[in-house]
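Much of what follows relies on a compact textual record of a protein's fold. An example makes this concrete, so a full record is given next.
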Amino acid sequence: MNIGIIGTGNMGRILIDSFIEAQAVEPANITIINRTFAKAYHLKQKYPSIHIASSIQEVIERSDLVLISVKPHEIYPILQENKDAFTPKQCLLSITSPISTTLLSSVVPCGVARIIPSITNRALSGISLCTFACTKEWEEKLLLLFQHISHTVHIEENVTRVASDIVSCGPAFFSYLLRRFIDAAVAETLITEEQATELASGMLIGMGKLIEKQVFTLDTLQEKVCVKGGITGEGIAVMEAELGDMFAHVFQKTHSKYHEDIKTIHKQFKSY
């Protein structure tokens, strides 16, 4: 399968590296284009057999699957300008949450899908969120492709944002919390930042493996560590008192921005 990738920014680069490392795609079967040529050229230096296209139309014409990895507001102009280059046998794949498969289908004459990845896919791990509006054959091809780098989960449109918050935004949210955890340890005790970072990172990796191997659930993890009347319980009591509705507010804020983005996107697609 020949894959064309429009946009080689952070997530486009992560997907290319992951697919190649997982041996899901040969570099020679990938055609790329990026508004900033240097980013595409850096990939060409790493993978010499990757083809850099001179136009988006060339990417489409050389590809069976066209993956678009640009900012949400840039997708409609690209598709509108190049829609005639698509054929019914192809599939268009978007990785952005505000644009539904219904909107994509309204512009291009081929099958479409939306698969929202996570930075954790770079470790050939984590989850990717799937919504399909294509043939069963294309659905199976896409699942096979992304199962090389992730665990695929089908989602409905009405949970797209919260699912993306957990899977795609989650690593940034919890990296921030871990950073604050480390900073507080350094500020309040004699531990160095280097040692606190090593210990906290190792703790997080170990906890992930316990969950992955189903040794403990999240609830039983807390129960096993939090001995009644012990030190962990004192820390949990502080967190219960001070966290409050913080995470509720996080979801409220992300959903508010999501709905703003959807309004902007629908104005672009309104002619369809």
In short: The CA atoms of residues 164 and 170 lie 8 Å apart.
